[in-house]
Amino acid sequence: MGMVGASAGVLPFRTVAIVGVGLLGGSLGMALRERRLARRVVGVGRRQAALDRALALGAADEATVDLRAAVREAELVVLATPVGAMVGVAREAADAMPRSALMTDVGSTKARLVSAIEGLAGGRFRYVGAHPMAGSEKRGVDGAAAGLFDGALCFVTPTPRTDARALAAVSELWQALGARVRCLDPAEHDRLLASASHLPHLVAAALVNSTTPDALACAGPGFRDTSRVASGDPRMWADVCLQNRERILDALTRFEQQASALHRILSDGDEPLLLAWLESAKAARDHHLSQ
Amino acid sequence: MGMVGASAGVLPFRTVAIVGVGLLGGSLGMALRERRLARRVVGVGRRQAALDRALALGAADEATVDLRAAVREAELVVLATPVGAMVGVAREAADAMPRSALMTDVGSTKARLVSAIEGLAGGRFRYVGAHPMAGSEKRGVDGAAAGLFDGALCFVTPTPRTDARALAAVSELWQALGARVRCLDPAEHDRLLASASHLPHLVAAALVNSTTPDALACAGPGFRDTSRVASGDPRMWADVCLQNRERILDALTRFEQQASALHRILSDGDEPLLLAWLESAKAARDHHLSQ
């Protein structure tokens, strides 16, 4: 995992097309406009009502349901749909994009996606995968915010086929948006994120699903925080889970082993082991995640 | 679970003794003083350094390591030590307290504690158990804050042996501190809180303990929130878990069944079931925990 420091000198972009103007796409549009990192932001979506809302909230300068028209003059095309729809969108955009254009995405899983889009790209356009670690339990452009990426970690996932200037341009974009950019191999990204991001969503959902309504009525700040991400968009997370199924199963298996170990400790009423188990969690969290 | 609306007309208390001036006890002392709900707050602890710190932060008017001296003039004695130490403290305080005095506590588990302290109390003093659902991953009086209970849920746990005026007085105190007071039977409290509060701590710790350091380095806001409570005080939580072991094991078993169900769904790559499972969690959380 390396830090990226190169400057490609490409900013501001002339026209950026953002396909999917929801939480992430909308926030990106707002941030590009507010920071003047693009002269023109074109939002692309399937429903006119959502596009009107994106325009009203300042997430784009123009908006259209016509993907091909939107990307025709784009210097940068950003895929911000649910990850399962990205390859289809990339295929359609590929035909209409200028040869010199650059494509990137904001998908939470990378290995399959990067491989598929690189296959599409051939020599026709340049592509670099990205994954800004920002989000919210909110959904759609109404949850979008220009500051969403400020201070966030953003992974860029080059491969041996990645054009170096394209990598520098995408990295520079995310740095200009306030993100801390790190390079990761796509497969390594998916392995690490299965634990760091995908598993917590599933654990939060399992916690809610195992809790009866009368107990939910007694929930305090602890339950609220532990379960927050379970309020995320089910469609988006189902996509992520299926794309990164094998890695998530590995992480879930390790988690289930910890739950079994805990079950045994509690059954035995083993105080020293319980204390050591809780202390190990606190030490690891405080070390890696202290504010 | 009933709302409490009675007014006992006991506020402000003359002398309140708080045994254990940590996060909860310290916050209680600060709030009592700031809201003028006690004329005099006496903090009791085992280490002089911690008591000096509590005084410096305004958590008490006076502080002492001498429990008997502290409770001799108390109208109200609040147990705010780790829950495993409360019965011992109550026993020692019982001998020195005035006959008219009232005892309460802020312990996270109630059934064993309430039964043990009611056994001690006999006719010597009046006791009502309480559990304010407030806390923090911070520890000790340095994490204390006068506003900690504002808007929090606070359970009071009367039994058939509870004096009605004592119940009204303790309820009135917590309402005056800004909490929403609810009555629960002690055993019912422990059953509900095993799911609503104790299990989330253990799930958060299991999540951290199953995550490798390289993945922890990739954690974003989702992992941070889901694991926040794992940074809580291990000693305190070990106490809670052992006091409420059977109920927590029931809740943990239900949670493990959800994790297994998820494992099967992912192994099968069953998209409709995965989506339904995620949607059920989102619906339950949004219904019960929307801000």
Short description:
Chain A is an alpha/beta fold.
Overview of this protein structure:
The structure is a homodimer of 291-residue chains. Chain A has 291 residues and is an alpha/beta fold. Chain A has twelve helices and ten strands. Chain A has helices at residues 23-34, 48-56, 67-71, 86-96, 111-121, 164-176, 186-209, 213-216, 221-227, 234-243, 245-268, 271-289; strands at 2-3, 13-19, 38-44, 62-64, 76-79, 102-105, 126-128, 130-132, 153-156, 180-183. The radius of gyration of chain A is 21 Å and the shape is elongated. In chain A, helix 5 links the parallel strand 6 and strand 7 (126-128). Chain A has two domains: 2-184, 3-Layer(aba) Sandwich (Rossmann fold), CATH 3.40.50; 189-289, 6-phosphogluconate dehydrogenase C-terminal like domain (6-phosphogluconate dehydrogenase C-terminal fold). A six-stranded parallel sheet of chain A has the order 4-3-2-5-6-7, with helices on both faces. A four-stranded mixed sheet of chain A has the order 1-10-9-8, with helices on one face. At the A-B interface, helix 7, helix 8, helix 9, helix 10 and helix 11 of A face helix 7, helix 8, helix 9, helix 10 and helix 11 of B.
Topology:
2 copies of one chain form a homodimer.
Chain A: E1 2-3, E2 13-19, H1 23-34, E3 38-44, H2 48-56, E4 62-64, H3 67-71, E5 76-79, H4 86-96, E6 102-105, H5 111-121, E7 126-128, E8 130-132, E9 153-156, H6 164-176, E10 180-183, H7 186-209, H8 213-216, H9 221-227, H10 234-243, H11 245-268, H12 271-289
Parallel strand pairs in A: 2-3, 2-5, 3-4, 5-6, 6-7, 9-10
Antiparallel strand pairs in A: 1-10, 8-9
Helix pairs in contact in A: 4-5, 7-11
